[in-house]
């Protein structure tokens, strides 16, 4: 920074942290789980209410708010032709079970702010807002304006950012406070598709189910069979992770695995693979053993080698692929979902060709391909990345480097964008505080103070970068 704002920044954060907590509570206390359109609210009334509140808070801080037909909103300060973007989101995932507090009533406990969205991503939006608030109150001269965006559909489909891109001016450079510090300058490509068996399963398999999401290693899979209970119990003797239950002359086979994110599947254990391996070798459904064994053959390892798509570019971690969900369609064909995270050394077209060929040899067709999410990468040595890294290292006293990840944020959908905080990698939380998407989600007050300082310094530093 040409001017040393250090003392002003420290004083601002100390004097405004109570206001930050109060404003964040105004957002967290609104249940904003994205859902179906209700009237003029494209993602439901809860999200619409949260968007209105976020823009109201931004207006109170001195920014100019704009509601983009409920799909997304933004609040602007400074030059409206050349500007930097900060995009957070005010939609949240459902609360789930097991909370010790009301997830939609922010509370402070032991130095943490607890409530759904405190960390993902209402807290991130508010950190961006308070960074801009510093610039306004201290009259910091700006080469570029600042636009703070409030996304409304990040957790479901990110249709909000597509709406923005179609109707609004794009920033020169964008940060999203929706990952871990320091700077994530790259995100792997995301590929999803289904494998559908060419023939239906026999009447011996009544139901086949597993997994709840494409992007997670499934921790539970079940099959309902028409077979003798005694035979199933005998087959299950000594089988790890397999439970057999009988009812009304039918048998339920349950496989228990370990969930993990599709981008980092190594800690996981696929319940679908466990179930298919058991069924294929049990003798209980002999007519279907080949189709079930094919699932095992293709998905028992996650490096893509069974599909001929193993790939590593030296920038990202190597390619991974999982089978997130399995089911039977109306015609009783097996439908096995695939989720692949891939580096720059392979293309969507190559994935399609090789997966189709490998699956075809084992009795499956490739269908319902969802690509269009290629790898996103900004070189780590770019001036903008350097400015963000300097801001982070100055506040934390560290000397860290940028990183890449397997997950996906808004950044991959926006030109010249990166994920920048707000989580601090390696920071251990007490037992009463949960993580994002889990029960008792919480964010530390000290982390919030540090993140605001980092964002203030980053916005000032970017003013000296040619964008």
Quickly list its features.
single chain; 467 residues; alpha+beta; 2 domains; 10 helices; 25 strands; 30% helix
Furnish the topology, listing elements before pairings.
Blueprint: H1 6-28, H2 45-60, E1 64-68, E2 72-77, E3 83-89, E4 107-109, E5 112-114, H3 122-137, E6 145-151, H4 159-167, E7 173-176, E8 179-181, E9 183-187, E10 189-197, E11 205-210, E12 216-217, E13 220-225, H5 229-236, E14 242-247, E15 250-256, E16 260-261, H6 271-282, H7 289-299, E17 320-322, E18 326-328, E19 334-342, H8 348-360, E20 364-373, E21 376-377, H9 383-396, E22 403-405, E23 417-420, E24 422-424, E25 442-444, H10 445-462
Parallel strand pairs: 3-6, 3-7, 7-23, 8-24, 9-22
Antiparallel strand pairs: 1-2, 2-6, 4-5, 5-25, 9-21, 9-23, 10-19, 10-20, 11-13, 12-16, 13-15, 14-15, 17-19, 18-19
Helix pairs in contact: 1-2, 1-3, 1-10, 3-10, 6-7, 9-10
Q: Beta-strand percentage?
A: 25-35%
Helix content: 25-40%
In one word, what is the shape? elongated
- CATH level 1 name of the largest domain: Alpha Beta
Report the radius of gyration as a whole number of Å. 25 Å
End-to-end distance, in Å? 17 Å
CATH topology of the largest domain: Aminopeptidase
- Class from secondary-structure proportions: alpha+beta
Total of DSSP H or I helical runs spanning 4+ residues? 10
In CATH, the homologous superfamily of the largest domain goes by the name Zn peptidases
